[in-house]
Structure formats: structure tokens, C-alpha cells
Amino acid sequence: MRSQFAINIHAVLEKHFPERRVFLKSDNDTRFIRLRSGTQLVAFAGCAALVAWSIVATAIILMDSIGSGNFREQAKRDQRVYQARLNDLSGQRDGRAEEALAAQERFNAALTQISLMQSELLASENRRRELETGIEVIQSTLRDTMNARDEARMQVATLQDDEGGTGPVQVAASSAPLDFLADALARTAAERDKVVADAQDALLAADELAQRIALMQDQNDTIFRQLEDAMTVSVAPLDKMFRNAGMPTDRILETVRRGYSGQGGPLTPLSFSTRGEPASGDALRANRLLKQMDRLNLYRIAAQKAPFATPVKDSFRFTSEFGFRRDPKTGGRRMHKGVDFAAGIGTPLYATADGVVVHAGWSSGYGRLVKIQHEFGIETRYAHMSKMRVKSGQRVSRGQHIGDMGASGRVTGVHLHYEVRVGGEAVNPMIYIKAANDVF
Fold first, then answer.
1. Which of 25, 137, 263, 382 has the most neighbouring CB atoms within 10 Å?
2. CB-based contact 16:44 (threshold 8 Å)
3. Which residue range(s) make up the domain with 249?
4. What's the Cα-to-Cα distance from 7 to each of 13, 14, 35, 39, rounded to whole Å?
5. For residue 196, how many other CB atoms are within 10 A of its CB?
6. Using CA atoms, how far apart are residues 58 and 52, in angstroms rounded to an integer?
7. pLDDT attached to residue 211
8. CA nearest to 372, candidates 323, 314, 322, 307
9. pLDDT value at position 273?
């Protein structure tokens, strides 16, 4: 039975893959190689498997390339949207800050005017009190004079009864001081009435100014609320970005503040007290907003100095993540201290933050390696370059072209090995790359 089945199989193979001979002829001899049906079948199957594998691999590579390009374009669009949003918020913040400063200037002018009015009112009150005191003195003197006049008239009447002829002269003489006192009293009363009228006008003006100040305070409160909302929207994403990267925000901001310690300018704390009184609520609120604006500026400076960016701007693929992996050379388990970006040879590579190049040369395993030292004890490494475009000691900026992707050193193909080290210890670069997606 088996022999019959084998015969049938052999017949089928002979039909489709007949036995062939390949003759090899030399000057002295002729030989041939016999290609049996089974050998031809194995060769055909191997060729078919190789062609199928090539088709599948090409399709996978093509799909990965298309997917990575779409992801990169989406990331660029998101970055442009975030940048436009930040620029819009920054413009709104600057406009609100200008409105707040203008409102504070108007508020200061109103306070100055009220202070002058209060001073005039106090002066008027003092003059009124002085005039009242003078009037009381004059009235007392007038009463004494009138009493003396009455006594003099009684004496004159007595003299007229006894002697006669001299009374009218004395009465006329005694009436002269009375006319003088009456005139002085009339002038004093008129001046008092004028002071009272001025005081009433000053009170009306003070009430009008108080209403204007209340309206300005309402407007200031609206402006302050809008500014506080804008500061919250602007500062929160930056704070989240640094915290997601595991960076202590207070220590980083203090470091930046020490490096930018010049004083003066538009962010100097405001002071509205001229007599030693404590600052008003609006002054304290404005100072808090200025501190938040200062914090936002410090965050922006710190973000430029930390590697919140991607070193490859063209289309690429992530071919290896941070952490333990199977070594592509030895096959053993080994720590991979960075991430790998795969793209075409010569793809431009860019610095991810401002810093100083501390190494630019060959390094065992890394090949052509560039190390950049940044602020806050952060160092970035760019390995396996085909060409380096910076030198040791050179200062570079974020986005500056520092080299080209290659395959130098211990590699299996063209790619960039990118590392981020903090205090000499390797950390996952994707922490910084993903954290930046919250803002940029």
C-alpha cells in the first residue's frame, strides 16, 4: 500500500517537476548534476517562501512608514495648535496686564484727588471752627457791650433827670462801638455761611468721587478675575509638564531666578500707600498677579533650558524603548539606557535644549557621540551619528542642527540612540518628550 502511494506521489512530482540534468563540460571531461523531482520541489518551496516573506515584510515596513508619518504630522499639527493657543493667551495676558496697570493708575489718580478734597474739607472745617470760636467771642463781647450800653443809658437818664443837656452827646458817643460790632458780626456771619456752603459742595464732590471709585473697583475686579483665569490657564500646563517629568518645580524656579536676578522693570511689586498704611486689597491682588506672571516667565525660561523636545523632526520609527531588553548582538538581557529613533542615513538631528557641548567624538559602543550639558544637572546624549556638526565647548540652542543620523559604533542598522541623564543617572527620555506634548 505504501509503495503504491509512493509511486503515485512520484508520478505526480514527475509530471510537474520532471527529472533534469545539468551538464558541466570542461576541456577534458563532461559531468552532469541530476536534479530529482524532490530536490526541485524543495527549491521551489524555498523560493516561494522567500518571495512571500519579502512581500509581507515590505508591506509591514510600508504600513509602519505611513503610520509613523501620519503620527508625526498629527504631532506637528497639535504643536502648532498649542503654540497658537499659547500665543493667544500670552496676548490676552499682556492686554489684561496693561488694562490692570491703567486701571490702577486711574485708581491712584482718584485716590490722590480724594486725598486733596479731604484735605480741603479738613481745612474748611478748621476755618469754620475758628470762625465759630471768633463769633462766640464777638457775641460775648457784644453782650457785654450791650449790657454796658444799657447801664450807660440808665446813667444818662438819671443824669438828665438831675442836670439835663449832656445825655444825648454821651449816647451818641456810646453808639459808635455798637455800629462797628454790628458790621463785624455781619461779615463773620457771611463768611460762616460761605464756609458751610463750601463744606456742603465738598461733601457732594466726595460722594460723586466715591461712586466713581466704586465703579472703578467693579471694573478692576472684572479685569483681575480675567487676568487670574488667564494666569491659571497659562501656568497650569507648564507646571504639569515639569511635574510629569519628575522635576521639582520650586527648586528649578529658584535656580532660574538666581540666574535672572536683575530687579526693576514692569514686574516690580506695586505700592499705593503714601502714609505708612497697609496696602489695599487691589494692591495685594495686583501684586499676586505680577508674581504669577513672574512665575510664568520663569517657567518659560526653564522650559527652554530643559530637553522638552524631540531630537528628530523628520519621519521616524521608535525601534527600542527605555529599560531592559534582549541585546540585539549577544541575545542576553541588558539595560537599554535610552530610546532609539530609526530613519534614513543622514537624517538631521537637533539639540533638544540650550546647553554646552561637553563631548563630540568617538566613544566605544556609542560610535560618533555628542554630549550636551544643560541646566539643572541634565545631560543629553546623541549616539551612532554619521557626521557631527558641533565641537566640544560649543554653546548650542534648542533646535540647532548638531549632527546626522548614522550607524557608527555597536549597531545593527541606521538609527539614533538618544539618552537623558539627570545627575549622571539615565532616565527615560520619553518622560520629557510626552510631558512636552501637554504644552508645545
1. 382
2. no
3. 86-305
4. 10, 10, 18, 17
5. 13
6. 10
7. 78
8. 307
9. 45
Q: Of the residues 244, 279, 305, which one is the last residue of a structural domain?
A: 305
Residues 216 and 329 reside in one and the same domain? no
- pLDDT score, position 192: 66
Which candidate, 396, 391, 304, places its Cα nearest to that of 350? 396
Q: Within the chain, which residues score under 50 in pLDDT?
A: 165-174, 264-274
pLDDT digits (tens, 9 = 90+) for 308-341: 889 999 989 988 888 887 766 666 677 888 999 9
* DSSP per-residue letters across 176-244: HHHHHHHHHHHHHHHHHHHHHHHHHHHHHHHHHHHHHHHHHHHHHHHHHHHHHHHHHHHHHHHHHHHHH
C-alpha cell of residue 375? 541646566
Q: Long-range contact list for 47-54, CB < 8 A, 24+ apart?
A: none
CA angle centred on 424, ends 420 and 427, rounded to 5°: 35
pTM of the model: 0.45
Q: Are 357 and 393 in contact (CB under 8 A)?
A: yes
Let me know: does 369 contact 383? Beta carbons within 8 Å: yes
DSSP designation for 279? P
Give the containing element (helix H, strand E) for 406: none
Amino acid identity, position 266: P
- 345-365 pLDDT, tens per residue? 999 999 999 999 999 999 988
169 and 96 part of one domain: yes
CA atoms of 88 and 31, how far apart (whole Å): 85
Instruction: Identify whether 53 is part of a domain.
Output: no
Nearest CA to 433 among 422, 419, 423?
419
Q: Which three cell numbers stand for residue 394?
A: 560649543
Can you tell me the distance from the alpha carbon of 40 to that of 51, in angstroms, rounded to the nearest whole number? 16
In a shared domain, residues 350 and 365: yes
Looking at the fold, whether 169 and 281 belong to one and the same domain comes out as yes
Distances (CA, A) of 366 to 50, 219, 352, 362, 375: 34, 62, 19, 7, 24
- Mark which of 305, 340, 355 sits at the end of a domain: 305
7 contacts: CB under 8 Å, gap ≥ 6: none
The Cα 239–Cα 254 span in angstroms is 14
Contact 393, 376 (CB under 8 A): no
Residues β-bridged to residue 35: 20
